[in-house]
């Protein structure tokens, strides 16, 4: 093997460090940073758990351990709403939340809760990563929260312990847990259910104790949170598509050097496609596993799905002012372009 002279090798190493922008000298000038991050689910079974673990792996590798992350899964740091409050206070640095609770901070985010807004992953990715989605992410500015990137929680399906669901009629009288979000509440009311808003980390116990009859979530979380163990029926409706948002608190972000701020933003983007890919694989894998574990799975027919869509169509107009008419129209226009 051709022997490199020492000078050539040292040139290559120097160039690599310079190119990486984080050469030993640059790193040495930056201070040690410790970031604490919380999520509501498990680290290994949920997609956003795997996503935040990937973020940790990449940022610690790129800074040779100068930036270290401590991860708090399974709601150890509270539920989505309380963790957002902690980010605003600076007592927690980062978190991953579903977009639905963010609407309590900035109403524009309600747009992502509109029933059947996104009907494919391609539409979701294009709109979220396009101008309309990015502008909505930017509306967090000034709230004490910074939305770094959209990940995927995914298309939501309904589980319950009473009966298979085929039409809105079948939801009549069922106590269905929803996220704490006005559009989720209204939609399930319109479909005839009794919606029960509740933080994610209280759902399993409520199902077990039959305080509620059912809940709705993407397959990954139905499996990872063990909800299927307390439910007899899983109905594929895909009635909502929920993005996850990887966030950092403004107070924590302001403590970072400009170079580290750029690095956090760069790595957030690098984890996006990974988390979505993992989520799509898990959604299919976990559905199969749940089938094998005996939960009765049915898919609502396209004709019956039209009944869900028809009865919820007024919700768009009802929440247009909260979302912002212009912004809503921009999102709908971008959806239409992809269809
Ligand atoms: C996890 C929640 C969850 C959401 C819910 O923290 O509350 O049902 O789907 O992913 O954000």
Give the ligands present: D-xylonic acid
Gap from first CA to last CA = 55 Å
Instruction: Name the CATH superfamily assignment.
Output: Bacterial extracellular solute-binding protein, family 7
How much helical structure, as a percent, in the residues?
A: 40-55%
Task: Name the overall outline.
Answer: globular
Counting DSSP E segments of at least 2 residues, the number of strands comes to 11
SSE order: HHEHEHEHHEEEHEHEHEEHHEHHHH
Main-sheet strand order equals 7-6-8-5-9-11
Number of domains: 1
Radius of gyration: 22 Å
Tell me the number of helical segments per DSSP (H or I, 4 or more residues long).
Answer: 15
CATH topology: D-Maltodextrin-Binding Protein, domain 2
Low-confidence stretches: 1-6, 13-22
The overall average pLDDT, rounded, is: 93
* Main sheet makeup: 6 strands, mixed
**Structural class category:** alpha/beta
CATH class: Alpha Beta
CATH architecture: 3-Layer(aba) Sandwich
Give the percentage of residues in beta strands.
15-25%
Describe the structure.
There is one protein chain. With 339 residues, this protein is of the alpha/beta class. It has one domain (32-338): Bacterial extracellular solute-binding protein, family 7 (D-Maltodextrin-Binding Protein, domain 2), CATH 3.40.190.170. The protein contains 15 helices and 11 strands. It has helices at 6-20, 24-29, 47-62, 80-89, 121-129, 131-138, 182-190, 203-208, 219-224, 250-255, 258-292, 302-311, 314-318, 320-323, 325-338, and strands at 33-38, 67-72, 94-98, 145-155, 157-160, 175-178, 194-197, 214-217, 233-236, 241-249, 296-299. The strands form 2 sheets. Strands 7-6-8-5-9-11 form a 6-stranded mixed β-sheet. α3 (47-62) runs antiparallel to α11 (258-292) and α5 crosses α15. Residues 1-6 and 13-22 have low confidence and may be disordered. D-xylonic acid (TK8) binds next to β3. The site of D-xylonic acid (TK8) has 11 residues, from β3.
């Amino acid at each position: 093997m051709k022997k490199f002279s020492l000078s050539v090798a040292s040139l290559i190493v120097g160039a690599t460090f310079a190119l990486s922008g984080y050469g030993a000298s640059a790193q040495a000038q930056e201070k040690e940073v410790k970031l604490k991050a919380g999520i509501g689910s498990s680290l290994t079974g949920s997609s956003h758990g795997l996503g935040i673990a990937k973020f940790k792996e990449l940022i610690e590798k790129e800074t040779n351990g100068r930036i270290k992350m401590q991860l708090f899964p399974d709601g150890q740091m509270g539920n989505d709403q309380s963790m957002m409050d902690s980010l605003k206070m600076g007592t927690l640095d980062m978190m991953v939340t579903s977009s639905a609770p963010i609407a309590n901070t900035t109403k524009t985010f309600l747009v992502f809760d509109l029933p059947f807004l996104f009907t494919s992953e391609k539409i979701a990715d294009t709109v979220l990563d396009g101008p309309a989605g990015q502008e909505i992410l930017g509306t967090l500015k000034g709230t004490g929260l910074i939305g770094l990137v959209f990940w995927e929680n995914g298309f939501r399906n309904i589980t319950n312990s009473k009966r298979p669901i085929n039409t809105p009629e079948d939801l009549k009288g069922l106590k269905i847990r929803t996220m704490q979000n006005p559009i989720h509440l209204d939609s399930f009311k319109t479909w005839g259910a009794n919606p029960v808003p509740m933080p994610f980390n209280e759902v399993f116990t409520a199902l077990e104790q039959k305080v509620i009859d059912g809940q709705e979530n993407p397959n990954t979380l139905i499996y990872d949170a063990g909800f299927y163990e307390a439910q007899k029926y899983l109905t594929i409706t895909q009635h909502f598509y929920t993005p996850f948002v990887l966030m950092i608190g403004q107070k924590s972000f302001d403590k970072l050097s400009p170079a580290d701020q750029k690095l956090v933003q760069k790595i957030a983007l690098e984890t996006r496609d990974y988390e979505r890919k993992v989520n799509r694989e898990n959604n299919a894998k976990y559905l199969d596993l749940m089938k094998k574990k005996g939960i009765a799975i049915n898919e609502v027919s396209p004709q019956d799905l039209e009944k869900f869509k028809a009865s919820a169509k007024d919700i768009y107009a009802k929440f247009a002012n909260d979302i912002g008419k212009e912004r809503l129209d921009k999102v709908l226009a971008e959806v239409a372009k992809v269809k």
